[in-house]
Amino acid sequence: ISFNGDLSYLILNIGGIIAAIVVATVFIPPIYRAGTLTIYGYLGKRFGVGAMIGASAAFLVGRLLASGARLFIGAIAFSLILFDRIELGYLIVAILIFGGIGTLYTVFGGIRAVIWTDVIQIIVVVGAAMLSIYLLLDAIGLSLGQIIETLRHGNGPNKLQIVDTDFDLAKAFTLWAAFAVVFSETAAYGVDQDLAQRMLTTRSAWRAGWSLVASKLLSIPVVGMFMVIGLLLSIFYGMPDMMGQVEPLDDTRKVYPQFLVNHMPKGLAGLAMAGLFAAAMSSLDSAVNAMASSVVADLYVPWRRAAGRPFDGKANLKTPRLVAAVMGAMLTIFAIGAAVMQSAGGQQLVNFALGIMAFAYAGLLGVFLTALVTRRGNTVSVIAAMVVGAVAVLLMQPYMAPAWFGFGLAWPWWMVIATPISFLVCFAGSPRPANDRTRTAT
């Protein structure tokens, strides 16, 4: 984004911080007190087993789409390293290798492996970013003042702009979109088992909330470093007469990996590439573990109980591992599908990855809000709300929105419209009888 444009993506952190505070104070305490293995178990206690199964199914479909897109993005650099190409066939091979490795250690390590490998991976990611900035500054050879002047007044608009006040609903990175993104960020942290599973491993709801807010604050400088890399690369590739001829860029998806391969010392390039791979793996392993947990706790265990076959987690360790392996394979398949979709549509990678989860988020957020702040809703209204939410998001896709609104809608606005509709549908359901709630909880 910063290579082609400016720093306006960073403004979305306003919505992210607001959402983190909302989730820490409104979502986490009751979900933590519910004591369920996944957050959808809370919906089971509130609305019934059918609602839990429906929510889990919506999460699984959405997470397969979103994490598949992220795995595909991570495989771009891997493909460039292995084959010096990122055409579709080479990307598929890279995705298969990535998916296999990430699934393997997640199957045997579970959430503990996810958390501790993520700790190591973020250290590698940050180290690689800092190293890349240092080497780019050295290669460019300009003073900090000259770099700032070039970015502000070079060819084209000001690339240091962070706040864009343009009220254009087709633009994703404006001040107004930053407030709209509160909906999608609240969904990401509050109704998505992939992220929520980490918070449920803490010793108290307070620690869970604090970990969320702290992680959001710490993510800003990390993302900022990669934005700076994009800005410096725009200078590096835009001024060949100053620093010697550099290879032309026929595909901006190559911009960072190509710099690492061609202009960084080999050993350091390997470290930086490891940082890119670590970022991709951290998205894959947590998604596989979250989906496996959801399948076992929200789908498989209720099915066994309904069949009169109690499930003993300690005595049936093979089942969660088998499910994790299947989820990893499915995620890899969806990543290949994402590669095909993006290649055909040409949508910007970040928008593609961030927007695709809205199909599940809209309904899930509406249902969780109904559960948390009202006493209404039942299994039927929960499932109806999730279906309506997905349909509403579908109608706002770039290829359909102009027919309904007369203009395009950027992905942050999809949730602003779809979530209230889902909430109203879920709210319309009459509350379950008290004795039914008690029986489900028992």
Summarize the structure.
This protein is mainly alpha-helical and 442 residues long. It is built from 18 helices and no strands.
Topology:
Blueprint: H1 13-34, H2 40-47, H3 49-83, H4 88-140, H5 144-153, H6 175-190, H7 193-199, H8 205-238, H9 240-243, H10 255-263, H11 266-306, H12 318-345, H13 349-355, H14 358-373, H15 379-395, H16 401-405, H17 411-427, H18 434-441
Helix pairs in contact: 1-6, 1-8, 2-3, 2-18, 3-4, 3-10, 3-11, 3-12, 3-13, 3-14, 3-15, 4-8, 4-11, 4-12, 6-14, 6-17, 7-11, 10-11, 11-12, 14-15, 14-17, 15-17
Please characterize this protein's 3D structure.
The chain has 442 residues and is mainly α. The chain contains 18 helices and no strands. Helix 3 packs parallel to helix 10. The protein is globular and about 70 Å long.
List keywords for this structure.
442 residues, mainly alpha, globular, 0% strand
Number of strands: 0
- Average residue-wise pLDDT: 84
Structural class: mainly alpha
The low-pLDDT segments are 437-442
**How large is the radius of gyration?**
23 Å
Percentage of residues in strands: under 5%
Q: What is the helix fraction of residues, given as a range?
A: over 70%
Oligomeric composition of the shown chains = single chain
Main β-sheet description: none
